[in-house]
Amino acid sequence: MIRRLLTLCTAAALVLTVAPPAHAAAEVYVALGDSAASGPLIPNQILPQLGCFRSDRNYAHLSSRDLGGSLRDVTCSGADIQDMYESQSTELGSVPPQLDAVGPDATLVTVQIGGNDLDLTGFIEDCLSLLPGDPCYDEYQDNGRDRFRDGTDALRPRVDQLIRDIRARAPQARIFVVGYATYAPRNGCWPRVPVLGVDANYIRATIAYFNQALREQAAAQGVGFVDFQTPSEGHDPCKSSSVRWIEPYVPASAATPFHPNALGMRNFAAIVTRTVRTPLL
């Protein structure tokens, strides 16, 4: 009898040992952000919120295919931090607050935001210089103060609060703040991309400072950071159309000037996928 019980227990233990583990819950990925994330003009643009200029080939869609599960992509061109909380008006209608898409079922959230709060794209547009002349960067200096550095520092508590609010809505989610790419090489490449060298260096320094602030706020809140700036070096708008990830003033690919093209989105998706699969320390 005892031998039989031991045999049955051994068999049961073997069954438990070789039994397949329970399947992990499917990924529920929520993507928040502005035009750097939405992919304006990259085919195919998604209905019905055409005013957001959201592509089905942006990094969230491509990463979601690699990660599996479902995607709620509410990225929208023109979005700023306030549009996380309030309805956003676009040229083709109003869209709900992006945080409405974040719920307790979310397992992954990426957020790329803040560029429009600083009007970085407008600054790059202002630096267009078809002829050698006065640099534009000095227009953003005032009595030794730098407008973009001051603006970046003022955004820090708002980024902190946004991360807290995402965590409150999705307490089980892995959260990642996404940085911005490289928009100019050192000293630029005037006149191919008509930004004077000194302005190109200022653009680089400004975006580097902003990305560092985003990284620090992410670390302070214990969430991840996705670095686009470092890997996009050498893929800036000065490079050939087959190499660059960001388009120049006159795009050669279907994309908005100084925004990611399809090649850029594919590479950014690979970076996102790799980063979110790496355990947070």
Automatic annotation (TrEMBL):
Gene3D superfamilies: SGNH hydrolase. GO terms for biological process: triglyceride catabolic process. Residues 1-24 form the signal peptide. It comes from the Bacteria. Disulfide bonds join C52-C76, C127-C136, C189-C238. The keyword DNA damage does not apply. Keywords: Disulfide bond, Signal. GO terms for molecular function: triacylglycerol lipase activity. The active site is at S35, H259. Residues 31-266 form the SGNH hydrolase-type esterase domain. The keyword Disulfide bond applies. This is Lysophospholipase L1-like esterase. It comes from Nonomuraea endophytica.
